[in-house]
Structures are given as structure tokens and as C-alpha cells.
Target: 5-methylthioadenosine/S-adenosylhomocysteine deaminase
Amino acid sequence: MTDMHADLVVRNAYLITMNDSREYFERGAVAIAGNKIVAVGTDREIAGSVKAARVIDAGGGIVHPGFVDTHVHFMNTARGAIPDSAETSVMMNTFRRWWDSVEEEDERAATLLNCLEMLSNGTTCFLEAGTLQFPDLAAEAAAATGIRGLIGDPFLWDVPLAGDTHAMTRAPRSRKRSLDLLGGQLKRNKGEPLIRGCVVLFGLGSASDELMRAALALADDHHVVFSQHQSFDTHDGSADEKRLGQRAMCHYADHGLLSENCTFSHMNDLTADEVAVVRQAGMSVVWCPVTSMSLGAEAAQHAHHLEMMRAGVTVSLASDGAVSGCRYDIGLQGLAALLASRAKNQSKLAFSAEDVLELATRGGAKAVGMLDKIGSIEPGKYADIVIRTTDLPEAQPITDPVQALVYSCGSKSISTVIVNGEVVWSGGQPTRVEAAMVYDLARSSRRRMWAKLSLAPESKWPLVV
Model:
């Protein structure tokens, strides 16, 4: 006898719940009503107690909570704009010129493309890094794809620039401008919107104590995340120390600029004292392993993400930007973190496949302030779920689903993505927008931007046209 009605049941799944007990079912099912999960159990239990309007048979494939990407720049239309051998300072100045030149149509194209790429790789929620010129437009474009996310205000900073850095005319470093814009995206946080607002400063030494204090107070008052870039490489740590008279995180702690609502990205160049500060503050740390390695960051060699994670600090994973982070794929970021940790510690025991899934789901959910709503498959939470196919050589045979997910299957195994109870990705295509239309918008934007900035592809090998 059935006693529950659902809009959708996903059955016959190798179900990884990531609940408090980290239970998984060799043959499990999950029932969804509206945008929430209403029941989780064995396939037999759900079949016997739930009547569904629609059923998706996972075919024995792995089903898990959607990944959370906790630091993204919406500018993958800039792929190829920077030569692979360019210094990081050259790359950043090109980015600043790009950000200073984008128009609404460019940012819409980049947002749509980014969101489709994230969905295709199993990401169901993102935190944007505060580098959108048109956040309202980007929020609308992101919501159109069906993804969940958090967006901040555009380029908030007030510390003067170094002499060799491109000054962005559309986002001058001004305390008044930054304070006037601060918190503008919090208007979204009524009801249950897909795209919510949070508090974001650019960071990396670009914010005064006064601006940071205002940002933290706003985040604490509204119970949202306060995010910024912090301590990417050794030059950032030394510059902060010269400006502040002590290491940045120690200074922030001494001046009351940290709380459990802080989610700081990169955090590669920390001293032991700063690691202790992070732990005591109860804040979250965002690890962008591929960016650190691809840019050859010296600090990545002695970064303390693993140590912080083992000490109980919330650590999450992020793709960062398309140029440095390679692609918007949290599975890739997790595998890179695992391999780097094992090599650095010369031990397989340093980092496990389970650790990857922990950071990609629950860690990410907590870092964006939504662990009570996402990050696991259990009743009462939003139905943000990824279904993977078994129809791949890499997916056979499934003995340990967590190892299969992390080591072998990769994002190519993703079959269906559900966000907020709705199927938004299926069979290699988005369901809410036309992929071909998005790709055409992205190509058109790329041509406009490259012409505007006088960019040209650079190759070490001869190109025959």
C-alpha cells in the first residue's frame, strides 16, 4: 500500500547519500516532491511506499548529491586569450582589461556558457567571485539554465593599485563606491530563489579594514557568506605583511574581521599562526588546486589545506577561472587535490576518494552557507542530484562507487542532473536553454572581445590556414 505521493522517483541507483552517517545503498531510491527530497531508502522500500508521477531508472548507476563550486569567474569566453607561457601578472592585466571592456551581451554569453559547463560536469550550485560587471543580468542568465548559485556585487575594493597594474575605469578603487554597492545582491534572498545574493569583496590586499568590517557586519547580520580572494601566492602574503605590519589572517583576527561566515578563496600562503587563526574563527577555506598548479604558485608547495581539513576546518573545492583552472569541473579539482596531497606527503593515506566527495558536496555546501539545504541526499533538502551512466568502459564493473566516481568515471559519466527537483541536464544537453544558441552567443562574444582588446592567438607551432 502506498502512503506518499511524489513528483519524481529515481530508482535502481547505487545511491551515495552523504548524510550524517555517510550511508550508501547498493540498490537505492530517492523520492522528490516539488523541489525537495521527501524519502530515501532501498529500492524496495521506496517502491512500496511512494507513488510517483515520473520514475527515472538509474540502471544501477551512481547517484550522488550535486557538486558545489565555491569560487568561479564567469569568463570562459576568454579561453585562449592568454598564451600558456604568459606570466601571471600578464594574465591578470589581460583579465582586468577584459573585465573593463565587457558589455551586457558578453557577460550574458559567458554566464550561460559557464553554467552549462558546470551542469554538464555535475555542479548544481556555485559561488561567483565578485567579478561581474552586470550581476543582475548574470543572475537572470544563470537562473535560466536551472542551476543554483550565489552572486555578489561587482569589483568591490578601495586600496590603491600597484603602479604596473591596469586600472579598471568602470570599477575604480573607491571606498564610497564599494560601500554604496555593498550588499546590493542581497535583495534576491526572499523566498526560495535559485540565485541568491552574498557579500563578496575582491580581496588579495585590495580592501581596507573599514571595507572588510562593513562587509563582515553585513554578512553576519543577513546570515550569508562573506567571500574574497586571499593569500594566493608568496608575493600576496609578503605584500599584505608589508601593508599591515603582520600576516594578513593574524591582522584580521586581531581587528575582529573574521567570523564563521567568512569563506576565503585560495589561502595557499599561510603560516602556522594563520592556520590556527582560521581554525579558531570557524571560517571556510576554498581550495583551487588546479589553478595553483597551472600557474606554478610557489605557495602551493607548502599550502596547508590538507592540514586544515584534518583539523576540522571546512574546506571546499573550486574551479576558479577557465584559463587557470582548466575547466569548470569539481571532479577534476578533487582528483588534482588528491594526487597533489599524496605526492606532497609521499603517502596514499594522505587523501582519500572519500575526502574528494566530502569536499565536493558537504564541504562546498557549508562553505556557501547552505549545508542545511544542500550537500546531501536526505529528506527535507533541495533535490539537487546527479545521476551517472553505467554505459561506459570506465564505469564497469562498479565495486566501490566512491572510487569509481573519483578515479575512473569522470564527468563524461554524467547522464542526468536534477536541480531544485527539475531535470536540467539530460542526455548530454541542457533542458531549459538551447545549447547551440549559447555556443553561438559565446563565439560571437569572443570575436567582439578579441577585436576590442586587439588579442590574437599565439602558438608555438606554425598554423596553416
In short: Residues 435-452 form the longest helix (18 residues). The mean pLDDT is 95.
